[in-house]
Amino acid sequence: MTSPWGAFWTLPAVPVEACRRAHWLRYASGGLRYDTQMPTPVNPVPPGFHTATPHLTVNGAAAFADFLKRAFGAVEISRGGGPGGKIMHAEMRIGDSIVMFNDDFTEEFHLPPLAQGRFPFSLHLYVTDADAVWNQAVAAGCQVEMPLADQFWGDRYGHLKDPFGFTWSIATRKENLTPEQIQKRQEVAFGRREASESCDE
Q1: How many domains does the chain have?
Q2: Between residues 33 and 124, which one has the greater pLDDT?
C-alpha cells in the first residue's frame, strides 16, 4: 500500500476468522458497535412534510421569517447560511405544514431577476378561526386584497398581500356542501354581481 506521501507500506495478512473474532470481542466488550449494526431505514418523506411543499425565494429571508412568526404563529425549524450572510435555506412550520424559503441570489449565481408585482399563485391556509388569523396577519403588515367573507362554496375566505409581495388566502370551512349546492349558490352569487355591475353602468 502506498501512502499519500509516496511511502510504500506492507501490511501483514490477517486471517478472516481472526477479523471476525476481533469484531465480536469489540462488540461484547462494549467497544465499537457500528460494524455489527444494520443500517437505519430512511423515510422517503421526511417527518412533517406533505407531498407538496411551497419553496419560495424572498428578498429579505430573515425578515420574512420574523413576519411569518408574527402573522401566522410560524415555528422555525431550521435555517442555513449562504454567501454574504444571506439565508441559503430555511424551513418553518405553519400549523401542520412546512414552508421552505431562501434569499434571492440573483447576483451571486447570475440568475434572471425575480418576478415583481402580481405573482401567479397564492399561499392557502385552512385555519380553525379565519377571523383571528386574518386580524393577526393584518396587524403584522398584510394588506387586504379580497375582504374576508362567507363564500358560496362554504368557506369563510379572503385574500391578503404580505409586505414581501406574496398573496395569502385565509379560510375556515363552515359548511359541507354538495357540488349541486355549490353550483346553485354560485349562480346566485354571480347573478347578483352581474346585476350590480349593470346597474353601475
Answers
A1: 2
A2: 124
Q: Scanning the structure block, which residue is given the C-alpha cell 406574496?
A: 166
- Can you tell me the mean pLDDT for 86-115? 96
**What's the whole-model pTM score?**
0.76
- Considering the domain architecture, whether residues 153 and 173 belong to the same structural domain is answered as yes
As a whole number, the mean pLDDT across the chain is 86
pLDDT mean over 134-143? 98
Based on the fold, state whether residues 157 and 196 are members of the same structural domain. Answer: yes
Rounded distance, CA 164 to CA 101, Å?
12
Nearest to 123 by CA among 67, 80, 79: 67
Answer for the pair 78, 91: CB distance below 8 angstroms, yes or no: yes
H or E stretch covering 25: helix 16-28
Q: Do 146 and 172 belong to one domain?
A: yes
Statement to judge: residues 133 and 185 lie in one domain: yes
